[in-house]
Amino acid sequence: MVGILALQGDFAAHRQALAERGVSTREVRKPTDLQGLSGLVLPGGESTTMLKLMAEFGLETPLKQAIAGGLPVLATCAGVILLAREVQNPPQPSLGLLDVAVVRNAYGRQLASTVAELTVTAPEELPSPTLEGVFIRAPKLVQVGEGVRVLAKRGEDPVLVRQGAILAATFHPELLPKNPVVDLFLELARRRG
Ligand SMILES: NC(=O)CC[C@H](N)C(=O)O
C-alpha cells in the first residue's frame, strides 16, 4: 500500500498514475494513515500551505519519523521543498530530511511552466538516456549534498535526485504517462516490501 500525502496539491494525479500501474493507494491526512505503508508520495502543490496543514493535522513528527526510518518516498516539486535541508526565496521551515538546498519558483511563474527534455545521469537506475519533465513553478536545487545522487539534469541543473530511499523530482513525473520515475519509486517500495 502506497500512501499519498493528500492535504493539498496534485495528489489525485499521483493516485491516478499509481492506479494505472495497478498499485493501491491511501490518502494520508492523519498520523494513523501512515501505518503499514510500503512507500509515500509527497505531491506538488503549494509547500507553504502544505506545511501549515501538516502542523495542523499533527503530521509533522510522524512523517519525519517514518521517512527517517527508511520509508521509500517519491517527492515531486512542492514535496521536494518540504523535505529539503534548506529553502530559499523566501526561506521557510522544512523537514530537513533531504540534503539539498532549493530555491522556490526558480524557473519563473505559472505561465513559464514547460515540458523540458532531461538528460539521465544514472543509466543503471533509469532505462532511457532522456526523459521528459513537466515543470510547474518548479524549485531549483542549488546545492546537493555528498550523499545525494543526481539521476537526471535539465541543462546543468540537477532535477531528479536520490538519497537512500528518497527519490526527489523538481518536476511532475505523475503527469506524463508511463514515466519511468514513478516505476523507479515503485521498485524502491517493492524492495522495502
Ligand atoms: N508545482 C509545484 O509543486 C510548485 C511548488 C510551489 N511553487 C511551492 O513553492 O511550493
How would you characterize this protein structure?
This protein has helices spanning 11-19, 47-56, 60-68, 78-83, 180-192; strands spanning 2-5, 25-28, 39-42, 73-76, 84-88, 98-103, 114-120, 130-135, 140-144, 149-154, 157-163, 166-169. With 193 residues, it is an alpha/beta fold. The chain has one domain: Class I glutamine amidotransferase (GATase) domain (Rossmann fold, 3-Layer(aba) Sandwich). It has a 9-stranded mixed β-sheet with strand order 2-1-3-4-12-11-10-7-8. The protein binds glutamine (GLN). Glutamine (GLN) is lined by residues 44-47, 77-78, 81, 104-105, 136-137.
List keywords for this structure.
single chain; 193 residues; alpha/beta; Rossmann fold; three-stranded mixed beta sheet; 5 helices; binds glutamine; EC 3.5.1.2; hydrolase
Quick summary:
It catalyses: L-glutamine + H2O = L-glutamate + NH4(+); aldehydo-D-ribose 5-phosphate + D-glyceraldehyde 3-phosphate + L-glutamine = pyridoxal 5'-phosphate + L-glutamate + phosphate + 3 H2O + H(+). This protein is α/β, with parallel strands linked by helices and 193 residues long.
